[in-house]
Amino acid sequence: MASIKFILFLMTAALLLVSNGARAFTLECKFSDYLYDKNYKCEVVNLNITTHNQIESAVSGAHIPRRSNADVIILSIDGQTAHYLPQDLNKFFPNVTYLSINKSGLREITKSDLKNFPQLRNIGVRGNDIENLPGDLFEHNTQATNIAFATNKIKSIGKDIFKSLNGLDSVNLLRNICIDQQAANRSEIAEMMKRATECFK
Ligand SMILES: *[C@@H]1O[C@H](CO)[C@@H](O)[C@H](O)[C@H]1NC(C)=O
Ligand SMILES: *[C@@H]1O[C@H](CO)[C@@H](O)[C@H](O)[C@H]1NC(C)=O
Ligand SMILES: *[C@@H]1O[C@H](CO)[C@@H](O)[C@H](O)[C@H]1NC(C)=O
Ligand SMILES: *[C@@H]1O[C@H](CO)[C@@H](O)[C@H](O)[C@H]1NC(C)=O
């Protein structure tokens, strides 16, 4: 009897956790063909995320004829409120190569936010409130070529964050707290990171 009670207790606890912790919402996109039909774009609108654990359960917005979520190459969050990224943001857009998050109050970004963007090449997170770039942030984005985190509040960076990205062409870390530099090729990036000792404390 005791064990059945205990199991019921566990089930209730799990249910409460799901209903309290995670909130589902619909991501609203304004879709457009950007640059001569080559790059299908979702510009996120009406986004307001101020807590962790917001789970994206659907995408809304009128597609251009014969286009679908899988065609989205550019995902842009610009001038929105996104203190955190929704979980599963990447689930709906498997082919995104360019992720841009500008001026949306983003406070943190982790490898799980980026894990389902295997095609990601260009990552621009400008004018936000990021304080830390974890060393494993790009673990799943091995094709990255251009990374920009200019004008954030970065105080710490994982030392080897760019080491395994063999195709990396440029990194822009201008106007942060522990660093104010950019680099435009592999050897410059390595040099820049060697000098960035303020960020490794
Ligand atoms: C955004 O969400 C917060 C918290 O739920 C709420 O207080 C605020 O009014 C919302 N802002 C807008 C513009 O909807
Ligand atoms: C984000 O800001 C950068 C730098 O100002 C700009 O080049 C880029 O076009 C912006 N992204 C979007 C989607 O507006
Ligand atoms: C997008 O991704 C899907 C699933 O991963 C794939 O089948 C499709 O070919 C891709 N489309 C483009 C345009 O890359
Ligand atoms: C990297 O860029 C610097 C400065 O622009 C240049 O002097 C250097 O030759 C470049 N190195 C490579 C390997 O392209």
Structural account:
With 201 residues, the chain is of the alpha/beta class. Helix content is 17%, strand content 30%. The protein has helices at residues 2-21, 111-114, 186-195, and strands at residues 23-34, 39-45, 48-49, 54-60, 72-78, 81-82, 98-102, 122-126, 132-133, 146-148, 156-157, 170-173, 181-183. The strands form 3 sheets. It has a 9-stranded mixed sheet. Strands 3-6 form a two-stranded parallel ribbon. Strands 9-11 form a two-stranded parallel sheet. The longest helix has 20 residues, at 2-21. Residues 12-20 have low confidence and may be disordered. Bound molecules: 2-acetamido-2-deoxy-beta-D-glucopyranose (NAG) (4 copies). One 2-acetamido-2-deoxy-beta-D-glucopyranose (NAG) binds at residues 48, 50.
